[in-house]
Structures are given as C-alpha cells and as structure tokens.
C-alpha cells in the first residue's frame, strides 16, 4: 500500500469516527446530567473540528501541496536554476535542473525550477525540458526522460536497463574516462558530439555521484543540455569553444563573441568579479571546497541570467557579469550592487566550516565610461584591480585616472625591459653600523633606476611593475648578480673587510626552488662565501604559505646563508613567527623608530631585544635619522643601526 492510499484511508477512518460516535454521544447526553457541561453547541463544534482534521489529513497526503516524498508545487518553485542537491553527507553540484526524491532514498530538494511543467513518478523528476538519466553504481541506466531519448532520436526503452558502456556510440561518452574521474571527484562534465538523423548535435553532460555514509557511490545522476547553437559549426574539432566546463557559464571567448553579436545596445554595465583568495582556500581546505565555492558563485550569477544579462568565467577565480539596456539602468545597477555587497559580506558555510571569501568587484558603464562596448570589460577589470589594492574597498567603479595609470604602467614595464637589457638599473648600498665601535656590519643592496623620460622610479613602483608584468624573477636575478659583483670589489677595502652583504628578495622569489641555485652560482662565480650573505625577507612574506616559507628558509640556512626578518612590526606583527623561523637577525621597521620616544614603543623594542638576546640573535634598527633616536636605541640595547643619520645609499663602486 503506498503512502497516498494509506493517508486517504486514515482520513476516511477519522471522518467516519466523527460522524458515527460524536452524534451518538451528542444524543446520549441530551437527557443526561452532563448536558449542562456539554451543550449542543460545543458538541457540534467538536464534530466540525473532527471533520476538518480528517479533510486536512487527506489534503496533506495529496501531492500538489508536496511532502518529503513528492515534488514542490508550482507555487513553491521560485528559481530558474537549481544549484544543489543534498544528502546527509554530500553536496551535489547540479546546475540547471533538480532531482527531487529518488525511490527508496532520502534526498532533499531545497529548490526547483520556475515556469516549467513539473511532474512526479518513482524517480521524482523536475523540469522535463532538461535531459536527465539515473544510473546505478554499476553503470546501468535506471531511468531516462523522454526528452533525453528524443534528443538522441530514440525511445526511452532504448536506454533503460542497459549499461552506459553499451551506449558509447549512441551517447558519445567515453565511459572509461568519465567513470574514473567520477569515482575520484564525485562529479565530472563532458561535452559530446553526436549524429541524430544525419545532423550533428552537441550535448553538454554533467555527471554527479550521490554517495552513502561510507562515501561509496549509490547513484549517478546525469543531466544534460543541448548546446548545439553555442558551438562553432565549422570547428567541431575544438569541442566547445564558448563554454566553461566546470560552471556551464560562458568562457572568456564566449563572452566576447556574445558582446560582438549584440544589436541596439543603448546602455550597458560590466561587473568584473574576482575571488582573490581562491588559492589560499584550495591550499587550506582542499580543491573540492574551492570547486564548490566556484560553483556557488557561478550559480548565483546564473540566477540573474536572461537574454540581456549574461555571465562568464574568465579564469579560475574571475567572473564577468554583463547587462544591457533595461538591465543597465541606474536602478538596476543599484540593485546589483546591493546584491553583490550582500554576497561579499555574507557568511559562506561548507562542510561545517565558515569560509571567508575575499571577493573584489570592479564595474564600468557604457556609454558613460567608454563609447566602445568591447572595452567595457577591460575597464571593469581595471576598477577591480584598484579594489584589490585597497582592503577597505570591495566594490569600485571605474574612473578615468585608472586608464591613465595603466598607460603609465605599461610604459614603465616596456622601459624596464629595455633597462634590464641594457644594464641600466644600478645597485646602491646602505651601511648598517655597530654604533659602539663605528664598524660597518652589513651593506644592504638597494635598486635604483632613473630613466631619461620617466625620471626617478621609486623602488616600490619598480618592484610592483616588475611583479605585475612578469619581470620580477629577471629583475631579482639581475640585482643579485650586480650586488655580488660590486660586493666582491668592496670587500677588498679595509673598512668593509668584515661586512656582510644583505640582499632583499620578494616572497615569490623566496618560494622559487630554483632561485637558491642562482644564488649559489653567483656566490661561487664572484668568490663570496655564502655565510657572508644575509637574505632579507619581509615580514609580510609569512602572511600566506607560512609552512612553505619555513621549508624554503631551512634550505637557505642549510646552505649557510644568514636570514633577516625585514620590516618587523610593519605588516604581520606576530611574535609567533619567531618561534617557527630559523632567523639570524630582526630589522625593526622605521615606523617604530619614528616613535621611539614613546614609552609604549620603547617597551615593545625592549621586548624584541629580550627575545633576540635569549636566542643569541641580533637586532638592527633601520630608518634612524637623528642623533636622539640613535641614543635612545642604544640605551634600549640596539647597537646595530641603519639609516640616513649614518649613511645615505650610494653606488660604492
């Protein structure tokens, strides 16, 4: 007996009970002494209430209100795109459609599909316009929709009961590949070309595994969409050029082609969305969590997609939303900005972990910001980059100065390449002294570049441009070689015979396993012992990938290099890193030195001095500019000092 029949019989039984016994009780008590306690009006009310309960039970059992084993009603359907299907232990990423309750399984369905006919049977399918198959753990097809069969020019009986390996030629799916990936990742996507009645069709399949408590596959849900119109008719060898496999969004090429084919665009807006901490999420939580976040962002974008609003995934953590005409008005943009701000600030929970998403957004408008529609995305990208540089600004609108800055940066990067080619960037040195005996202890290498057209380019700008335009590795190697050439000559002077060379390297350079080989080769070439070289690493290096930094520092220490923590107290400001890192000296940042007369700052310096004393390590106060600062620092035990008060950087050879 099914539940519907059982609930109906239960409702009838309650109704009959109310009809038979309550009136009898009513007649029996009319002449009894209890009649005063149970007047006719109350008994009639009880009868009506009993009938109401019975009818309610019957209605509740009917599928059009829905329950755990039936579909949601049309009134409960509130979204065009379905984002996930959950079991007790597993989240299924499921763009585009939804599987409700599967027979003898207890799966929930938090959302369904608007505006499409929904129906139910043993497999509980929603949205019959989608292609859908259920496959058991052995690869046998249990259920297929009529639409799926029609897409292949077949009947449902051509599929049901057969193993998917037997249908390779029909479905166009290489099962040996997708099943291996499915067993490992629990989801896989595939775009296939098939021949139906002499015509080529492209179908995008999404396979999702539903697992049990032991993480074994119980069921495979295959959902598909025909995407023939999105595929280049003349380039079937390219598979799908315009679709991002993981998210079903357009890819970068797809977005640009979509924009190129737009007609009668009166106004438009581009939102460039960047998940800046995706790499850290993947490293810490695992790539499965990172993939889940990517799909959640994609599904959020799909939620607003229509003929005049579309979205694309440009790279791993970069997305673009593009809206035109009525969806690009002031009112519409204000709505999108509020939604974006809410999404950025909302908590995101996955597998019982609350994950912080550092999402940066830049946006630009047409024709206000540019009269060339195809440039709108690049302008929104510039705005996003500005947002990435300011921790407080999550969403930034494009402004004209951003393009001017970009033009200058491109000019600098071009000239930087020429300067490296022509050996025009100089290395200067600044002394660090032991103020008790005036001896030079360290010579810090500093880059200096003065271009005939650009003028003096600050070191901060120089290294930022080098990093942004993929020239940092070359610049760092160039400076190391130049510094060692000069130091080899300087060491011959009696004043510097005991001095050590201090070389600054960027975080990415520290993590480069090949850079230490370059250091060793240069030291050997210029006859410098590695124990005469101190590697200065900015404290901010340890904010991300601390474990990798620790391991790389161990390699440098093993070779014999000295390690200095530079700019201590400026960025990370965590004493905990001192326990983890094998360092030889700390360089206190100028921010402390500028306020060294403050008693609180003095206490901080005393504490750092005490830590280095206990571990028999040194401390250098950098940025010393006055005699007063020098004397206070000396009184605090900081006898190694560096700054303009003693020596301005100069080219010493």
Present the secondary structure layout.
Elements: H1 3-28, H2 40-61, E1 84-86, E2 91-93, E3 98-99, E4 125-126, E5 131-136, E6 141-144, H3 146-151, H4 168-171, H5 175-185, E7 187-196, E8 199-211, E9 217-226, H6 252-260, E10 268-275, H7 278-285, H8 287-302, E11 309-315, E12 318-324, H9 330-345, E13 348-350, E14 353-355, E15 359-366, H10 376-388, E16 395-397, H11 400-421, E17 426-434, E18 439-451, E19 455-457, H12 459-468, H13 472-490, E20 500-505, H14 507-511, H15 515-525, E21 533-538, H16 546-559, E22 562-568, H17 576-580, E23 585-588, H18 590-594, H19 599-614, E24 618-622, H20 627-635, E25 640-642
Parallel strand pairs: 15-16, 18-20, 20-21, 21-22, 22-23, 23-24, 24-25
Antiparallel strand pairs: 1-2, 3-4, 5-6, 5-9, 7-8, 8-9, 10-12, 10-15, 11-12, 13-14, 17-18, 17-25, 18-19
Q: In order across it, which strands form the biggest sheet?
A: 17-18-20-21-22-23-24-25
Give me the CATH superfamily of the largest domain: EAL domain
CATH topology of the largest domain: TIM Barrel
Give the low-confidence spans. 1-10, 16-38, 59-129, 235-239
| Helix proportion | 25-40%
Mean pLDDT: 79
Secondary structure class reads: alpha/beta
- What is the tally of beta strands? 25
């Amino acid at each position: 007996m099914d539940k519907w029949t059982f609930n109906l019989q239960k409702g009838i039984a309650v109704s009959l009970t109310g009809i038979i016994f309550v009136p009898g009780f009513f007649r029996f008590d009319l002449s009894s002494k209890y009649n005063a306690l149970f007047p006719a009006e109350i008994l009639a009310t009880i009868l009506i209430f009993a009938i109401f309960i019975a009818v309610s039970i019957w209605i509740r059992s009917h599928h059009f209100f829905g329950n755990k084993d039936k579909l949601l009603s049309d009134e409960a359907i509130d979204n065009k795109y379905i984002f996930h299907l959950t079991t007790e232990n597993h989240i299924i990423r499921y763009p585009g459609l939804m599987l409700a309750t599967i027979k003898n399984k207890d799966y929930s369905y938090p959302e369904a599909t608007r505006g499409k006919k929904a129906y139910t049977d043993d497999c509980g399918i929603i949205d019959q316009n989608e292609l859908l198959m259920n496959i058991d753990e052995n690869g046998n097809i249990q259920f297929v929709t009529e639409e799926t069969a029609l897409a292949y020019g077949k009947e449902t009986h051509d599929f049901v009961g057969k193993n998917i390996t037997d249908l390779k030629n029909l479905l166009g799916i290489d099962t040996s590949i997708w099943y291996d990936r499915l067993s490992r990742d629990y989801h896989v996507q595939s775009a296939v070309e098939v021949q139906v009645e002499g015509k080529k069709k492209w179908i995008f399949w999404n396979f999702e595994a539903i697992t049990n408590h032991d993480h074994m596959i119980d069921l495979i849900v295959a959902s598909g969409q025909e995407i023939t119109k999105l595929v280049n008719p003349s380039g079937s060898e390219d598979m799908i050029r315009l679709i991002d496999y993981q998210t079903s969004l357009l890819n970068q090429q797809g977005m640009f082609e979509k924009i190129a084919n737009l007609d009668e665009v009166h106004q438009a807006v581009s939102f460039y969305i960047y998940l800046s901490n995706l790499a850290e999420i993947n490293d810490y939580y695992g790539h499965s969590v990172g993939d889940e976040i990517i799909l959640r962002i994609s599904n959020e974008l799909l939620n607003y997609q229509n003929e005049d609003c579309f979205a694309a995934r440009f790279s791993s953590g970069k997305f673009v939303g593009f809206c035109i005409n009525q969806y690009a008005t002031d009112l519409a943009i204000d709505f999108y900005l509020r939604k974006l701000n809410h999404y950025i600030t909302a908590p995101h929970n996955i597998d019982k972990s609350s994950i912080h998403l550092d999402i940066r957004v830049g946006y630009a408008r047409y024709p206000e910001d540019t009269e060339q529609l195809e440039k709108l995305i690049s302008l929104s990208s510039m705005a996003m980059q500005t947002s990435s540089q300011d921790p407080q600004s999550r969403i930034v609108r494009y402004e004209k100065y951003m393009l001017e800055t970009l033009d200058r940066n491109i000019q600098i990067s071009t000239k930087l390449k020429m300067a490296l080619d022509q050996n025009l960037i100089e290395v200067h040195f600044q002394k660090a002294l032991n103020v008790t005996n005036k001896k030079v202890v360290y010579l810090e290498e500093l880059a200096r570049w003065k271009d005939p057209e650009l003028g003096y380019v600050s070191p901060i700008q120089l290294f930022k441009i080098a990093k942004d335009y993929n020239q940092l590795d070359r610049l760092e190697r160039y400076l190391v070689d130049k510094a060692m050439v000069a130091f080899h000559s300087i060491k011959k002077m009696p004043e510097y015979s005991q001095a050590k060379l201090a070389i600054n390297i960027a975080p990415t350079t520290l993590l480069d396993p090949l850079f230490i080989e370059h250091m060793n080769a240069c030291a050997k070439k210029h006859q410098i012992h590695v124990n005469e070289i101190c590697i200065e690493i900015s404290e901010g290096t340890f904010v991300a990938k601390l474990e990798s930094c620790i391991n790389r520092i161990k390699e440098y220490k093993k070779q014999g290099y000295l390690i200095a923590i530079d700019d201590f107290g400026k960025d990370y400001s965590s004493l905990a890193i001192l326990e983890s890192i094998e360092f030889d000296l700390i360089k206190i940042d100028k921010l402390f030195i500028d306020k060294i007369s403050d008693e609180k700052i003095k206490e901080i310096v005393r504490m750092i001095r005490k830590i280095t004393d206990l571990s028999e390590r040194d401390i250098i106060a950098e940025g010393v500019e006055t005699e007063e600062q020098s004397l206070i620092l000396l009184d605090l035990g900081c006898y190694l000092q560096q700054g303009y008060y003693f020596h301005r950087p100069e080219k010493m050879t």
